[in-house]
Design a protein that fits this description.
four-stranded antiparallel sheet; binds flavin-adenine dinucleotide; 284 residues; five-stranded antiparallel sheet; Enolase-like, domain 1; single chain; 14 strands; 12 helices; 3 domains; Uridine Diphospho-n-acetylenolpyruvylglucosamine Reductase, domain 3; alpha+beta; Uridine Diphospho-n-acetylenolpyruvylglucosamine Reductase, domain 2
C-alpha cells in the first residue's frame, strides 16, 4: 500500500529537528516500523522529520563507568561495536538477535525503544541493565529509568515534542555474566518470549540478579520476584530453576496466533532458566 502524502524534512541540526517536532512533526529514525505503519495507514503523519542526518544522535562512548549510546545508533553498530561487545555484551547480544541484516542496518535503538513493541528485543536487556533514557525536547531534557519509560503496549512516557536522545547502560566487569535468550517467531524474528539475565557473583554468591522479560505480556518487565529468589544463593542449577519458575509471577500472559497464554507461560520459564544458566557460565 501507499502511505498518505506527507512533508519530509531532514535537518542536520538537533535544535532545528526539535523545533519541528514541537510544532507537530513526527520523528523518523530507521523507518523499519514507522514506514510499514504508514503504508498500512495505521499512522498518517503530515510531516516527518528524519533524524538520520543529525550526527549528534549517533555515537557510542564510555563515560563515568557507563556506556552512552545515541538514539540513532543502529542495531548493527551496537551488535558490532568492540566497545559494546567488551563493556556491555548483553546489549550487543540483544542487538544481534533483532530481525535480519537489513533491519539491523537501518533500525535504531532510539526508534525501537520509542516504538515500545511488546515483543521487541532491546526492552528485556534494557530492563536487566536498569538503563537510563535521556529525553530531549525544544524545552530541555530529562532522564528517566527504563521501568518508568515503558508504560503499556506501544505506549511510553515520551511527552509531546520529546524524543529519545540517548540510552545509558552500565559498563560491566568480569564479576558479571549476562545473556539474552529468545524464542523466535520465525516469520518476523520478534520474540514469542525473550529473557535477559544479568548476574553478579561475589564470594560464591549471586550479589545481584536482574532479569528482564519481553514478548510475554503487554510490555516488557523486570522479574523482581525471581531476582530476589536468586540473590544471596550460589546460583546453583536448583536455585536457577526455582527463580525461573517465578519469572512471570503476577504478570498476565499474552495470547495470539503464535503462542497461547499457557504455552508462553511454560516457555518463559524455560527461557529464563536458559538465560540464567548461560549468564552464570559467563561470569569469569
Ligand atoms: P522508526 O520506524 O523510524 O520509528 C518507530 C517509532 O519511533 C515512530 O513512532 C517514530 O516516530 C519513533 N521514533 C523514532 N526515533 C525516535 C526517537 N529518537 N525518539 C522518539 N521517537 C522516535 N525488532 C525487534 O526488536 N526484534 C526483531 O526481531 C525485529 N524484527 C523485525 C523484522 C522486520 C521485517 C522489520 C521490518 C522490523 C523488525 N523489528 C524487530 C523492528 C526493528 O527493530 C525497528 O528497528 C524498530 O522497531 C524501530 O526502529 P526504527 O529506527 O526503524 O524506528
Amino acid at each position: 500500500m501507499i502511505p498518505q502524502s506527507f512533508e519530509y524534512a531532514a535537518p542536520a541540526d538537533l535544535k532545528d529537528a526539535l523545533n519541528q517536532i514541537a510544532a507537530g512533526a513526527k520523528p523518523l529514525a530507521g523507518g523499519m516500523s514507522l514506514i510499514p505503519m504508514m503504508k498500512l495507514r495505521l499512522a498518517a503523519p503530515e510531516t516527518l522529520v528524519d533524524l538520520g542526518r543529525i550526527p549528534s544522535l549517533n555515537y557510542i562512548h564510555e563515560e563515568g563507568g557507563k556506556l552512552h549510546i545515541g538514539a540513532m545508533t543502529t542495531h548493527f553498530q551496537i551488535e558490532s561495536s568492540p566497545l559494546v561487545r567488551s563493556r556491555c555484551p548483553l546489549l550487543a547480544e540483544a542487538a544481534g538477535n533483532i530481525g535480519d541484516v537489513q533491519v539491523r542496518n537501518m533500525g535504531t535503538i532510539g526508534g525501537s525503544t520509542a516504538h515500545a513493541d511488546p515483543s521487541a528485543d532491546y526492552p528485556a536487556s534494557l530492563m536487566a541493565l536498569e538503563a537510563q533514557i535521556t529525553l530531549v525536547s525544544a524545552k530541555g531534557s530529562r532522564v528517566i529509568g527504563v521501568e518508568d519509560f515503558f508504560v503499556d503496549t506501544f505506549t511510553t512516557a515520551l511527552e509531546d515534542g520529546e524524543i529519545i536522545q540517548d540510552i545509558v547502560v552500565p559498563v560491566e566487569d568480569s564479576s558479571v555474566g549476562a545473556s539474552y535468550q529468545k524464542m523466535v517467531q520465525p516469520a518476523s524474528g520478534f520474540a514469542i518470549v525473550g529473557v535477559a539475565a544479568r548476574l553478579r557473583i561475589s564470594g560464591g554468591k549471586a550479589s545481584l540478579a536482574r532479569i528482564g522479560v519481553t514478548g510475554f505480556g503487554p510490555k516488557a518487565f523486570r522479574a523482581k520476584k525471581a531476582e530476589s529468589l536468586l540473590e544471596g544463593t550460589a546460583a546453583s542449577p536448583s536455585d536457577i530453576e526455582k527463580a525461573a519458575a517465578a519469572v512471570a509471577d503476577g504478570v498476565e500472559s499474552s495470547s495470539d496466533l503464535h503462542a497461547s497464554a499457557g504455552y508462553r507461560g511454560h516457555m518463559v520459564k524455560v527461557y529464563a532458566a536458559r538465560a540464567l544458566t548461560i549468564a552464570f557460565s559467563r561470569v569469569s
